[in-house]
Design goal:
two-stranded antiparallel ribbon; alpha/beta; eight-stranded parallel β-barrel; homodimer; TIM Barrel
């Protein structure tokens, strides 16, 4: 799968991914749920509205980008209808040739991680019938439980040609509380040790120069990104935190290898809610929100191409 | 919420929780999905079968236990119909007076954790209508992202009278890889530092002697449980790993405080698949699987009451 992602990145000259993390507050008024707020089918209408929003953004940007990254929490908060919208979004992005990174941050003990891996990347034997429930291409995974929580995901990557990004150094302000702790055994911070383990977990999933076990490293910590880039030469890095969270184009150069590859940068709000942003709101009406998203993708691509 | 859990534990003299983690292989033949394996409604039938299995176990054990703990991964692996079975299980357990611990192990950056917290413990404003999508009473939470990933859950605990258990030292074999790393700053292992943070996060959510921010500590590491019990005097401990994973009754005494409280022990397979176990299979037919689960609960209670 990592090879497929790299091919798409090269073809479109676009090491970026659009985060499909919609909220109701982002929806333009013509897409707001079309149902009585007190009716039984209201939540279904919310799910349908979110899916329509995503579809328009996918349609407006699919030729420019290799991948989308729906954040499942934004769908899970609307319950079953929200999760149906998540699944419809995965399928629609696939139908437009996009790779789907499921931002799910799952992770558990071995047998339970195996169930999550089947749910999101692989397939499950449902009593004589094999079903691939959500069928994303990549998933993000939490490493806190160690190797036996990661291995079921790696196994499914091998059996189903999928890939993962393991949380190493996250983009949020308090990520350092645990991740930056220096370990007595080596004097190195925890995130470096996790990074070394990511490189190791990926070692028998190589496709060309990169493995199918990637890492999440926030754009908001460029110096740590630089160090992790060195420590994990075969690891693709998913970089959140660009744009709305404060990461800039100049911060990104450290995350890439000399081959111009090795990283894919996410922007969510900065793209999907671009029409609400001062930079775009004079040029694009609410009805043309998806065109604003396209313009924001083009601006992000310029910024990144200049800096790497 | 922790006070409600403690009251139920005292009333039933039962510091245990039954893990509702069904697999299709556990279902007795008369409950297997009633639909053509190649038909469109087959996965719905799988979800319905799992829910019937859970219902029978809840019916057979509800008077003996304070709580159930469905592991969402086991439902997520069957996609949308599986998640409907999860939600139906939460609601059915509530209708029988049980507290529901959603074993979801979510955790993300602040804004995303807020969405998970709303999804599972709180409610979301869906465009003028407030909806509580899954509405468990407790949720398990992963701490790797630090305070800003935990705080939205703590906020929802306060606003909606709910509670959480944060992963501190998990029951699986490789949990030590990161969790046991000694930190250079203090010489203490990471799990102790996380435990101290759990005690701190809970400090303004106290109800009586305990807070609404609990911890997950595996029965498989009793010595570490002992140390964590001392470090976190106001923290309730959810103890997985008893039974099928190898933890014994004798291992459990360290997890309790002198008041006989402070811990709740989970068993999943050992209870819900008891009818397949050598210990019970001669006494209970496949049709009476739920009675075997009841017997297994009674045996677990005897074992724990002897040891704490």
């Amino acid at each position: 799968m990592i090879k497929k992602l790299i091919n798409e990145i090269k073809k479109k000259n676009a090491p970026i991914v659009v985060g499909l993390d919609p909220t109701l507050a982002m929806l333009p008024s013509h897409l707001m749920p079309k149902a009585d707020v007190s009716g039984e089918d209201y939540l279904e209408a919310v799910g349908a509205a979110i899916f329509e929003f995503n579809k328009a953004i996918v349609d407006a940007t699919a030729d420019l980008i290799p991948a989308v990254k729906p954040q499942i929490a934004m769908y899970e908060q609307f319950g079953i209808p929200g999760l149906i919208a998540f699944k419809n979004t995965v399928d629609y992005a696939h139908s437009k040739g996009l790779i789907v990174i499921g931002d799910i941050k799952r992770g558990d003990i071995g047998s339970t991680s195996a169930a999550y891996a089947s749910a999101h990347l692989g397939a499950v034997d449902a009593g004589g019938r094999t079903v691939a429930p959500f069928d994303e291409d990549f998933a993000t995974v939490n490493p806190y439980l160690g190797t036996d929580g990661i291995k079921p995901f790696v196994d499914v990557c091998k059996s189903h040609d999928k890939a993962i990004f393991v949380l190493v150094k996250t983009s949020n302000p308090s990520s350092g509380e645990f991740q930056d702790q220096n370990l007595g055994s080596t004097g190195k911070p925890l995130y470096e040790y996790v990074g070394e383990m990511v490189e190791k977990w990926g070692s028998d999933t190589m496709e060309g120069d990169y493995s199918n076990v990637g890492a999440v490293v926030g754009a908001t910590y460029p110096e740590m990104g630089k160090r992790l880039r060195e420590l994990m030469p075969h690891t693709y890095i998913l970089v959140p935190g660009y744009g709305a969270q404060g990461g800039t184009g100049a911060d990104l150069k450290y995350f890439f290898n000399k081959d111009g590859l090795g990283a894919i940068v996410n922007s969510s709000r900065g793209i999907i809610a671009a029409y609400k942003n001062d930079k775009y709101k004079d040029r694009f009406s609410e009805e043309n929100f998806a065109d604003a998203s396209r313009a924001a993708v083009e601006d992000m691509l310029s910024d990144i191409r200049e800096n790497i």
